[in-house]
Amino acid sequence: MSAADPRPVLLSLRGVSRVHGSGATAVRALRGVDLDVRIGELVAIMGASGSGKSTLLNIAGGLDTPTEGTVNLGRHDIASLDQKARARLRRRSIGYVFQDFNLIPALTGLENVSLPRELDGVPLRTARKEARTALDEVGMADLADRFPDEMSGGQRQRVAIARAFVGPRRLVLADEPTGALDSATGEDVLRLLRARVDAGAGGLLVTHEARHAAWADRTIFIRDGVVIDSTGELAEPESLLSATDGH
């Protein structure tokens, strides 16, 4: 977004590098990445396999720490927090949506969604109420008592999105969330993500599809761990629903 954008910065990465290994076998997954995500902004990340997209997402969400640089979520410097504090911040402030759903098979939809709040010490009654609200938001209230293996792929992904939305979370990170879904269901998932961001969250979306990136406010392109380009808003996403996949 423009430097004149008045919306507050929610997530800020400065000079972020990530090196795996050491010596002759060291691999630089990220190299000096700078990135801001503002409240109400969805940013898409595109790049070839192995370009550093998922590493960037993991560092943005506190699942990994940078070798160099800073990562700030609001007033919190994620990289400086110990493991326990990072886990607490993730439960309270960050929602993840993965391609393979990552639901717990032995828990119902309601239990999967309420679990992060319960782990954070929220009373069971309150956690379940928040979970029902999140499930209703994604159109899954009627399936709250079903187990994941009783749901379709699209239904499981909606439950996973509800889990990412539950409670006061302000940052949503989505790693190829439509990869295991048919095109129509995938577009429904992106509508939900877009609506959440418009309601006051910030979002990062990793995708290979230009028509999916069109749901974002802007797109950054990454190659060999380096951000090589950034674009403004692409064509209106509704106009791309019938577009064929491009690779």
What is the CATH topology? Rossmann fold
State the CATH superfamily name: P-loop containing nucleotide triphosphate hydrolases
CATH architecture: 3-Layer(aba) Sandwich
Q: Give the SSE order as H and E letters.
A: EEEHEEHEHHHEHEHEE
Instruction: Outline the biggest β-sheet.
Output: 6 strands, mixed
| Tally of DSSP β-strands | 10
Counting helices, strands and paired strands, the structural category is alpha/beta
Can you tag this structure with a few keywords?
31% helix, Rossmann fold, six-stranded mixed β-sheet, alpha/beta, 247 residues
Give a description of the structure.
Helix content is 31%, strand content 26%. The chain is an alpha/beta fold and 247 residues long. The strands form two sheets. The protein has a six-stranded mixed beta sheet. Strands 2-1-4-5 form a four-stranded antiparallel beta sheet, with helices on one face. It is globular and about 50 Å long. It has one domain (9-19, 29-240): P-loop containing nucleotide triphosphate hydrolases (Rossmann fold, 3-Layer(aba) Sandwich). α6 links the parallel β7 and β8 (202-206). α3 (109-119) crosses α4 (124-137), α4 (124-137) crosses α5 and α5 (153-165) runs parallel beside α6 (183-198). GO terms for molecular function: ATP binding; ATP hydrolysis activity; transmembrane transporter activity. Pfam families: ABC_tran. InterPro entries: AAA+_ATPase, ABC_transporter-like_ATP-bd, ABC_transporter-like_CS, ABC_transpr_LolD-like, MacB-like_ATP-bd, P-loop_NTPase. It comes from Georgenia satyanarayanai.
